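Lecture 7 notes: from sequence to structure.
We start with the chain below.
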Amino acid sequence: MSDETLSITLFLVFVGITLVITVWASRNTKDATDFYAGGRSFSGAQNGLAIGGDYMSAASFLGIAGLIALNGYDGFLYSIGFLVAWLVALLLVAELLRNSGRFTMADVLAFRMSPRPVRTAAGVSTIVVSIFYLLAQMVGAGALVSLLFGFSGDFAKGATIALVGVLMIVYVVFGGMKGTTWVQIVKAVLLMTGAILITLLVLGHFNFNLSSLLDDAAGQSGKGGAFLEPGLRYGTEAQGLEGKLDLISLGMALVLGTAGLPHILIRFYTVPTARDARKSVLWGIGIIGAFYLLTLVLGFGAAALVGSKAIAKENPAGNTAAPQLAEKIGDIVFG
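Predicted C-alpha cells for the same chain:
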C-alpha cells in the first residue's frame, strides 16, 4: 500500500467515525438546549478535552510548529500567548458565563441591555471573527490534507478545502453541540497521541538531549545563533518603533483574544454547574499547555531534520513543517 493510499484510507476511516458520532448526536438532540448547549450534560473533563480539540486546530497545530521551524524562538511567542490567555478565561469569563444560564454572550447582554442593537452588534462581530478565524483553519486543513493526499494543483487544493468546509457544516448542522463536542474530544485524543509519538521519536533520535536538538536546528536554519534568540521576526531593530508596537499589539491580541472567541465562549454553557465550567478550563489549560510544549520539539525538530529551506519551499508559511517532520522521522526510525 502506497503512502497516499494509506493516508486516504485513514482519513476516510476518521471521517466515517465522526459522521457516525454526528448521526448518533442528531438522534439525541431534542430541543434548543440540546442543540446549542449539549443538554448541559458534559463533565468538566469532557468539556476540557473538547476545548483542547477546539484550540488544537489545524491552524494552531500546523501554524505554530511552522512558525517555530522558520523563526525559532519568536515562533514560540504564539504558544505562550495562547496559554496565558486561558488564565483570563478562567478568572474572568468561565464561571460568570455559566451562571447566566443562557446560550450565548449576546443572550446575557441582551437580557440586561436593549436587545436589538446588542444582538446586531453580537451577530456582526461573531460573523467577522468567525470568517477570519475560519480562513486560517481552512487553509491549514487544506494544506495538511493536500500534503497527505499528494495533491499539488490549485484546483485539487481548493476542492480539498471545500470538502473540509462541507464536513464542518455537516457536523454542526446535524450534530449540534453534542455532535461537535464528541468530535472535538476524539480529535483532541488523536492529536495528542500523534504529537506525543512524534515528539518521543524526535527526542529519541537526539538521545533526549535538547541542547543537541537546538544546536542542529540553529545550524540547519541558516540563521545561526539568532535562531534561538528573540528578535528574529518580531520587534526587530530594522522594524524600529513600529515593530515594537506591533509586538505589543500581538501580545495583547493573544492574551485577550481567547476570552472573546465565539466558539470558546459557547463551550462554558455545556456543563451543568459553574464549578464544572472552571474545571473544564483547568483541563483545557493542562491539555493545551502540554500540547504547546510538544510544538516546541516539533518545530525545532522540523528545523533540525527537515531544514527551514525545505519547509519554506513546500509551504512559505511553514504550515507543512509538522507533516514533513512526521514523514522524515518515520523514514529515519522505520526506514
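Points to note: The chain has a mean pLDDT of 83. The CA atoms of residues 85 and 255 lie 4 Å apart.
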